[in-house]
Amino acid sequence: MQCDTCRREALVFQPYSGKHLCPVHFLKDFEAKAKRAIRLHGWLRPGDHIAVVLSGDASGAALLVFLVKLTANRRDIRLSAIAIDPGMSGCSAPDQARNVADACGIELFCGSFAERYGTTMDAIVQKDGQEVACRSCRVLIHDLIGEIAEAHSVTRCAFPTTVDDSAGAFFSSLLSGTVECTLFSSGTTGKNHIPVIRPFMEVPAPEVIRYAELHPECDGCGTLPPCPCPGSGSRSADARVALDTYDHRHPATKFALANLAGTLTGIAAAQGLPASCPVCGEPISDGECEACSIRRNIERRRVS
Q1: Taking the CA of residue 284 as centre, how many other CA atoms within 13 Å lie in the half-sphere pointing to its CB?
Q2: Which residues share a beta bridge with 78?
Q3: Is the per-residue pLDDT at 225 higher than 60?
């Protein structure tokens, strides 16, 4: 199949746009989307120290490579990376993150659940089950990222969030009745509220993976996260599988859901925020802050 722009051999087909793109025009299209998101939200400012969150997968590696290219001539912006070892059997995230950071010539800051919390995700899954472990993992990882970022004077943390991630989070929270967790996300990470940027928010996950494959710095990251998700088999995971199946038959569904989430967030914010936790600022559901409850539970286990 030929590229719709230059008639060279196409590498990528975009089912939502109907376009076939060669490597050159795919890269231009991909990077234009990411740059547009950055401009729209004002995510790069002079004096910024941006830390890319690496989990050892292709998405994080692609984001680091993209930002290295984008800021290559910006002496007023510092770039680094953060990697967290959650302590899961077979998880190679820290090693792969180190390889990518070294290939890009970027400083890497590391942290681990075992050192910070005195436990591991393997232990949490075994004790609490998949559903609770999935929620705990999300809170603990973001808290630790925020602590590391603050310790190294990071001004913004960059996450490789894709259209698939945004749509999947909104869809699963809608089905579980916890949509406020998505709509009222603060746009920060950790208890100290480090601002978050998401340059790939308008890009589908398969295109992020293909972008990584076109850059040798990402070699070895593979196409799947190296750490098995603690929520595998949970309701949230099932919802995402169902969404993938529907989107395959009806391209652009994930774009529609992600856009809907953004629209509802704007409407809800204009009408006033819901009750939030006075300690961490997260939305409170049924009079309780789940994030603080998770933190207290982990701390109790550590001192017992």
Answers
A1: 14
A2: 49
A3: no
Pairing type for strands 49-54 and 78-85 reads parallel
DSSP string across 219-244: TT--SS-SSPPTTTTSHHHHHHHHHH
- Check: CB of residue 74 under 8 Å from CB of residue 50: no
Q: Is the dihedral of CA 130, 136, 141, 142 positive or negative?
A: positive
Q: Which two tokens stand for residue 193?
A: 């509220």
What are the beta bridge partners of residue 188? 195
* Residue 31: band (very low, low, confident or very high) from pLDDT cuts 50, 70, 90: very high
Identify the helix (H) or strand (E) that includes residue 170.
helix 163-176
User: What is the C-alpha separation between 114 and 302, in angstroms, rounded?
Assistant: 10
Tokens of 253: 């569904």
Q: Give 3-state DSSP helix, strand, coil % of the chain, rounded to 5.
A: 50, 15, 35
pLDDT tens digits, 243-278? 999 999 999 999 999 999 888 877 766 666 566 777
Mean pLDDT of 139-145: 94
Give the C-alpha separation, 230 to 234, whole Å.
Answer: 9
Burial class (CB in 10 A: 0-12, 13-18, 19+), 217: buried
Q: What mean pLDDT comes out for the span 1-13?
A: 93
Instruction: Find where tokens 């076109």 sit.
Output: 214
| pLDDT the model gives residue 119 | 93
